[in-house]
Amino acid sequence: MIDKEVHDAGEAVSGIENGATIMIGGFGPPGQPVALIEALLNRGVSDLVVINNNAGAGGDAISRLFGAGRVRKVICSFPKAIGSTVFDELFLAGKIELELVPQGNLAERIRAAGAGIGGFFTKTGYGTELAADKEVRLIDGEHYVFETPLHADFALIRASRADRWGNLVYRKTARNFGPVMAAAAKVTIAEVDHVVALGELDPEIIVTPGIYVDRFISTGYAPTNPKVTS
Amino acid sequence: MMRLSRHQIAARVAKDIPDGAYVNLGIGVPTLVADYLPEDREIILHTENGMLGMGGAALPGQEDADLTNAGKVYVTEEIGASYFHHADSFAMMRGGHIDFCVMGAYQVSARGDLANWRTNSTTSIPGVGGAMDLAAGAKHVYVVMDLFSKTGESKLVQNCSYPLTGAECVERIYTDVAVFDVIPAGVRILEIFDDLDAGQLSTLVGFTLIDATTSATVRN
């Protein structure tokens, strides 16, 4: 029998060691697997490479990971954060490495890794400093830049519901990076709001099939009640 | 001098978005465009974090933690809305499916080069987000900006001094002073709001602009 649910966040992140490359889902708070990030923080590992669209905001779990000095390098599109200077201070002090990637390249490089694609040519970034030194090819009269896949050792993602096989559905804009990250990491760990019986999720609407998910925890989180701080 | 307010610029942009368009609005003044889209047009808003059919800002108490726009503001969904993951969302942008994007800018050059992701400051944190994807992929790239910086320099320039977001991608520029089109022959003035003529505006901008204000008046 397959049952990918684990009942403890610490157990869910076991196996993550120093130096690991970790994709973390979320675009700001929606889709951010807060319980798993907390567990990673408690695990105490460092020298991490984090792949996330942002670099934390307003004291959230990701910014605490940076603040605790656990991250060696971040690969992201938009590290500028509202209400957090943690990343800024580390970056300006030269204490953290930044690989800045246009957002669509970030998503597509992750997707390419999950799909076994060795790279792709894109118009994004052509003629800019973010494409400097990259291979350029003229295709049908337009310039395209070569981009390589982005793999990870672990992906930490958040979804709305899971069944014991690890089939996932998401809620609204919290879907964001979850589906592509789930496929791009050697080990994918999901945090879901609720677990439902196998068969309860309509096969037509499953977004991430369980083949991409190694294990998950269920938090019982009620997503319709945001903590409005501003 | 007569200058349009941020809201007046947004309203001016909104007038030019046609019925049936798929539109991505950037953060800041571009977001305000949504408030002025004509009621009799069905215009579908795309938000890069993964949604088509985005509605207005959520009312206090009605916020949904899983529903934000690209600026991480709580928004609502229109009837007919859809959600998708980030690679699909950017495929819409990069694959040429978004009809119009409206972005802010630090500078736009006479060739339509766009600079809006970083200045040359060594103490600022660089962040690019989806700007380069929109510049490369949207069918029509519209810019809204004040024509002059706080220190009085024209932001419409012969050559950008700030790092580029995209080369030769901007089609139209809406400012507080005038509306411009970038065409192969140069920059064409469509409309002037201020009490200036085309010659005076060229002097302020620092290079020769093509005057098409008369035809613009007829067209509107």
Automatic annotation (TrEMBL), chain A:
Q: Which Pfam families match?
A: CoA_trans (PF01144)
Superkingdom of source: Bacteria
Q: Which InterPro entries does the entry link to?
A: 3-oxoacid_CoA-transf_A, CoA_trans_fam_I, CoA_transf_BS, NagB/RpiA_transferase-like
Q: Which PROSITE patterns match?
A: COA_TRANSF_1 (PS01273)
Q: Name one GO molecular function term.
A: CoA-transferase activity
Recite the UniProt keywords alphabetically: Transferase
Q: Which family does it belong to?
A: Belongs to the 3-oxoacid CoA-transferase subunit A family.
List, alphabetically, the PANTHER family matched.
ACETATE COA-TRANSFERASE SUBUNIT ALPHA (PTHR13707:SF60), KETOACID-COENZYME A TRANSFERASE (PTHR13707)
What name does this protein carry?
3-oxoacid CoA-transferase subunit A
TrEMBL record, chain B:
Sample GO molecular function, one term: CoA-transferase activity
InterPro entries linked to this entry: 3-oxoacid_CoA-transf_B (IPR012791), CoA_trans_fam_I (IPR004165), NagB/RpiA_transferase-like (IPR037171)
Keywords assigned by UniProt, alphabetized: Transferase
Q: Which Pfam families match?
A: CoA_trans
Q: What family does the database annotate? A: Belongs to the 3-oxoacid CoA-transferase subunit B family.
Q: Which NCBIfam families match?
A: pcaJ_scoB_fam
Record protein name field:
3-oxoacid CoA-transferase subunit B
Q: Which species is this record about?
A: Cryobacterium gelidum
